From TrEMBL:
Name under which the protein is recorded: Diguanylate cyclase
Subcellular location: Membrane
Molecular function terms from GO: catalytic activity
CC terms in the record's Gene Ontology section: membrane
CDD domains in UniProt: GGDEF
Gene3D superfamilies: 3.30.70.270, PAS domain
Ranges that cross the membrane: 188-209
The entry's keywords: Membrane, Transmembrane, Transmembrane helix
Membrane topology: Multi-pass membrane protein
InterPro entries attached to this UniProt entry: DGC-Regulatory_Protein (IPR052163), GGDEF_dom (IPR000160), NarX-like_N (IPR029095), Nucleotide_cyclase (IPR029787), PAS (IPR000014), PAS-like_dom_sf (IPR035965), PAS_fold (IPR013767), Rev_trsase/Diguanyl_cyclase (IPR043128)
Main location: membrane
Domain of life: Bacteria
Sequence ranges assigned to domain GGDEF in this UniProt record: 355-490
């Protein structure tokens, strides 16, 4: 079974569109990283330009302070040191902004700057460098002059300082403008990439829609062919989930397609008794179908084609009797009839192989009290939970059945001849473990106990009936013993009896 592929041109275009989508995503990531790095670098440069303004003001104020007469020595030394550090930091930062290099940050760390390539900013930096050299000479002259000469040299120095401050203000403004322009340029690039990505996404959606329509048409053609087949047909994936089904199958199962498609096969069919016959669960009338399987490969995926032929007319009576005779309707485990039937086969095989078998009878204690106190729905849940636990604790070759209202039976084959007593002890422990954990239902936690009885084949019985009688008798003896022990404990003040509990 094969669905014709799309034309080669459409498939190639779809691959190119998907590749373009990936490349655009990578380019968008790259541009975002570039924008983040540019904003971070520009923020650092703007901060340094702002610091240059503060350093210019600091140099002017400190120089005015040093020209004051009768200045204390410690103040003069501190101001002189502050002036030298401010001048050195100003000059180093100015060179780093102009030619690139390292300068100090506010946290006494170092920052690496790249040369600024903006023409207007470079012109401002050149003017600031020339003015700083002149300002530096005036500063050195003031520091070396006598008090009388300071009076004459200070006004030109302050005028030069104001001009330098004005240049630093202009430099800061220009760097901010340059940063905004560069960020805006990257944002426009991002917008262009985003628009291209939208166009590419629309193209991908269109091509995928065409692919969907193509597959839908061929699926409808296939469905029409399947619906013309008289027998029931369904397609299963590797998880045994129904992918598609024809009208004949829907009529056979008497269910709408919504309940069939997407449902696991095990949800619709119960294969406990005979694997080659499927009995529909939940239909008013028992339906008997004979399946056949075939493995298919569709679009490089493995599927199973299941055809179901309705043989209800031939086997209706036999199927109805089998359903009623061998399965317990509540717990969905074998009932007493099937258990006795299987017992005969297992015991016959054990006789031929000289093996021992162990029959166990399990009777739930105080089950009527559970129904009376918590309701029959709770009692039903307890029975189903116990049946499930017993089935989980048994091996594949063992058999568990519900043989009465609150009574279960199990059959175990003891393969090894020499250690059958040890094997029996292990089985007893497994059965007791079933009742260790409480059962939760409808907000109640119920601690369930049970009385057990055992019979060994062939020592204690030669057939299923006699073995069940021996095990049943032993179970009632154990139940009576436990009841007596509980009453004695209650009479001696040791607490309530087991039955009361």
């Amino acid at each position: 079974m094969h669905i014709p592929p799309l034309p080669r041109s459409s498939r190639t275009l779809l691959r190119l569109a998907l590749l373009s989508f990936v490349l655009l995503q990578l380019l968008l990531i790259y541009l975002n990283v570039q924008l983040a790095q540019a904003l971070e670098a520009d923020a650092a440069v703007i901060n340094l330009a702002g610091r240059q303004r503060m350093l210019t003001q600091q140099i002017g104020k400190t120089m005015v302070l040093l020209t004051q007469p009768s200045l204390p020595t410690e103040v003069q030394v501190s101001a002189d040191q502050e002036l030298r550090e401010a001048a050195q930091l100003f000059e180093r930062t100015l060179q780093a902004l102009m030619r690139g290099g390292q300068t100090r940050t506010g946290q006494q760390g170092l920052i690496q700057l790249e040369p600024i390539d903006d023409v207007v900013t470079q012109q401002l930096l050149l003017r600031a460098t020339g003015l700083w050299l002149q300002h530096k000479q005036e500063l050195e002259s003031l520091q070396a002059s006598s008090p009388n000469a300071v009076v004459l040299l200070l006004p030109p120095f302050l005028a030069s300082n104001r001009e330098l401050l004005s240049l630093m203000n202009a430099l800061t403004t220009q760097i901010e403008v340059m940063s905004r322009e560069r960020a805006q340029k990257i944002r426009w690039q991002l917008l262009g990439m985003f628009l291209l990505e939208i166009i590419n996404g629309v193209l991908i959606v269109y091509l995928l829609y065409r692919r969907y329509q193509h597959n839908k048409q061929h699926k409808e053609m296939l469905q029409q062919v399947l619906d013309e087949i008289a027998v029931g047909v369904c397609l299963l994936n590797t998880e045994k989930v129904i992918v598609t089904a024809n009208q004949a199958l829907l009529r056979l199962l008497q269910r709408p397609s919504e309940q069939i498609l997407g449902a696991p096969l095990t949800q619709l069919f119960n294969t406990t008794i005979q694997p080659w016959i499927y009995t529909l669960v939940g239909t008013p009338t028992t339906l008997r179908l004979e399946p056949s399987w075939r493995t298919l490969s569709i679009q490089h995926r493995s599927y199973e084609l299941l055809t179901l032929r309705d043989v209800t007319v031939e086997y209706a009576l036999q199927e109805q009797m089998t359903q009623l005779a061998y399965l317990d309707p509540l717990t969905q485990i074998p009932n007493r009839r099937l258990w006795e039937h299987q017992n005969r086969q297992v015991l016959a095989r054990a006789t031929r192989n000289q093996q021992r078998c162990l029959v166990a009878v399990i009777d739930i204690d105080c089950f009527k009290m559970i129904n009376d106190q918590h309701g029959h729905l709770t009692g039903d849940h307890v029975l189903k939970e116990i049946a499930q636990r017993l089935s989980e604790h048994c091996r594949a070759d063992d058999m568990v059945a519900r043989i009465g209202g609150d009574e279960f039976a199990a059959l175990f084959t003891l393969v090894t001849e020499g250690d059958y007593l040890f094997a029996k002890q292990q089985i007893v422990q497994k059965l007791e473990a079933v009742f260790h954990a409480p059962i939760h239902y409808d907000g109640n936690w119920l601690r369930i106990s049970a009385s057990l009885g055992f019979a060994m084949f062939p020592e204690e019985g030669q057939n299923a009936v006699s073995l069940l009688q021996v095990a049943d008798q032993q179970m009632y003896q154990n139940k009576a013993l436990r009841r007596t022990l509980g009453l004695q404990l209650a009479a001696n003040g040791a607490g309530p009896s087991l039955m009361d509990q």
